Fold this protein.
Amino acid sequence: MDREIEGRIKLIGETQLIGAKGFKKRELVVTTDEEYPQHIMVEFINDKTDLLDRFQVGQQVNVGINLRGREWINPQGEAKYFNGIQGWRIKSLADVNLIPADINAPVDLSEEDPNDLPF
């Protein structure tokens, strides 16, 4: 089942190198647009960390996620459970190609053929 989060980027963390094997992690915080907005932290790991390079704080995005859970047994033998949200895809919700360079520029309709109707 595909899961997604939509919202505005609140924070993009720096890439962190963890351990001697070169494991990479980068955190993204997305604020949802709903009555009670949620600030959701999503981890991108290894080769997926580079996906965040082309995004900026404030952008509206859709993030494909996987929910991860794991069990850890502490030294006293008690089970502890941890959950994580791992991102695997991110895309912008704004299509900049649809915005004219100068939205307030006057349009000269006199050059158009009045018989050339779009319907």
Q: What stands out?
A: Residues 96-109 have pLDDT under 50 and may be disordered.
